[in-house]
Structures are given as C-alpha cells and as structure tokens.
Amino acid sequence: MISLNPGCVARCLAAGLMALGWLAAMPSAQAAQAVRWSAGMTPVLAFDTLDGRRFDSAGLMGKIVVANFWAVWCAPCREELPLLAQLAASTQGQPVEYLLVNTGDSPSAMEKMRSRMPSNLLSLRLAADAQDFRFSSLPATVVFDTRMRARWVVRGAIDAQAEPLRSLIAALLAEANANANTRAGKPAHTVLLVGN
Questions:
Q1: By the 8 A CB rule, do 73 and 61 touch?
Q2: Apex CA 157: angle with CA 156 and CA 161, to 5°?
Q3: How far apart are the first and last CA of the chain?
Q4: Do the Cβ atoms of 158 and 126 come closer than 8 Å?
Q5: Is 10 within the bounds of a domain?
Q6: How many Cβ atoms sit within 10 Å of the Cβ of residue 66?
Q7: Helix axes of 75-90 and 165-183: crossing angle, nearest 10 degrees
Q8: Rounded to an integer, what is the distance from CA 128 to the centroid of its chain?
Q9: Strand ranges in the chain using DSSP code E only, listed in sequence order
Q10: HSE of 12 in the Cβ direction (CA atoms, 13 Å)?
Q11: Domain for residue 56, yes or no?
C-alpha cells in the first residue's frame, strides 16, 4: 500500500491547477492567424484542375480570390471545407472567387474526396511549377486583392464564423469599392462640414 503525504498531494494539486490555468490562457494551436503576405512578388495562380486542364487566373482580375491550400490527410483542412462553402455562399453575387488547391495528393486520393467537396468551390491540383505556394503547415489560405496581389496568408483552420477570412474579404471589398468610387470621380468618403 502506498502512503501519500497530505502536504505533497496539496502541492501537486496546486501545481496541476496552475498548469491547467496556463494552458487555458494560451491561444489554441489550431486557431487561424492572418499575416500580411511577405514572400515578395505575388506568384501567378496557375494550376492543373482535377480533370487535367490548366487553370489560368487571368480571368480573375477584378475579383478577390481566396485560395485555400489543403491535403486529404489534413483533418483540419477537411473540417473547414463546409465552412469555406458557407462563406462562399454568403458572398455569392459579390466579386469573390474561392479556389481549393491540393498540395500533393495523388489524383486517385483526390477523386475519392471529390464527392465530399463543396460544389461551389473550384478544386485544383498544385502544379509542379508552383514552388512559391509551399507551406510548412496546413491548412493555409492566401487572399488576393482585385489586382491579383497576394495580401494576406491565413495559417490554420478558420473558426465557425469563417474568421479571420470573413473580415479580410469584407475589408478588401470595401477597399475595392472605395477605389472604384475614386476612379469614377466620386469621393471615397462623404464629408459633412458643420459651421457655427
């Protein structure tokens, strides 16, 4: 039979509770973080589609592009697919395009996933010449502005409200609208002058 010292038990419990408090205060390792694109020039979005055709992003000028990089083996990637589909549905009718870019699974593995993939998201394979889009962890999402410049990288899975992607897209849409108003000769902001 093991005899426990009551003082030792109390100290161990206190240390365990303190450790749990520290863990609870730490941010989740899975939480998505948005960082500005810092990899230099924006790479060209040119990939192979699942059916073997070459996808060219030239037709995406004027749209915000959300390119989500994923893999079949990545559980958080699979879990965020329905969230991305909901986000795409919520921005329907706006100039936003969503792409799912696979990072190296075999065509047969991707075909098995195809039936579970949202139909409102265009799915691509990572082309062999797309070295600028290699990520050390998945999922990762690159957000491009309407001039096809990479602006943000979201590392990690988005939350149930599709944050931080939803906020980034809203900010880029507002920026695009302000730029369009400025080009059209309209003031980007309304200024109200009030005198005494």
A1: no
A2: 135
A3: 88
A4: no
A5: no
A6: 25
A7: 40
A8: 22
A9: 33-36, 46-49, 54-56, 64-70, 96-102, 122-125, 140-144, 150-155
A10: 6
A11: yes
Instruction: Give me the residues paired with residue 20 across strands.
Output: none
Closest CA to 176 of 88, 45, 65, 63: 63
Q: What is the pLDDT of residues 36-93, one digit of tens each?
A: 998 778 888 888 888 788 888 888 999 999 999 999 999 999 999 999 999 999 999 9
7-27 burial, b at 16+ Cβ within 10 Å, e below that, comes to eeeeeeeeeeeeeeeeeeeee
Look up the domain containing 174 and give its range. 29-183
DSSP 192: -
What predicted TM-score, i.e. pTM, was given to this entire model? 0.75
176's torsion region: left (phi>0), alpha (psi -120 to 50) or beta?
alpha
At 111, which CATH number? 3.40.30.10
Q: How many domains does the chain fold into?
A: 1
| Any domain includes 19 | no
Is residue 11 situated within a structural domain? no
| Distance (Å, whole) CA 181 – CA 57 | 25
**How many C-beta neighbours within 10 Å does residue 147 have?**
11
> pLDDT by residue (tens digit) across 95-111?
999 999 988 888 888 88
Alpha-carbon gap, residue 139 to 133, rounded angstroms: 12
183 token code pair:
């080009």
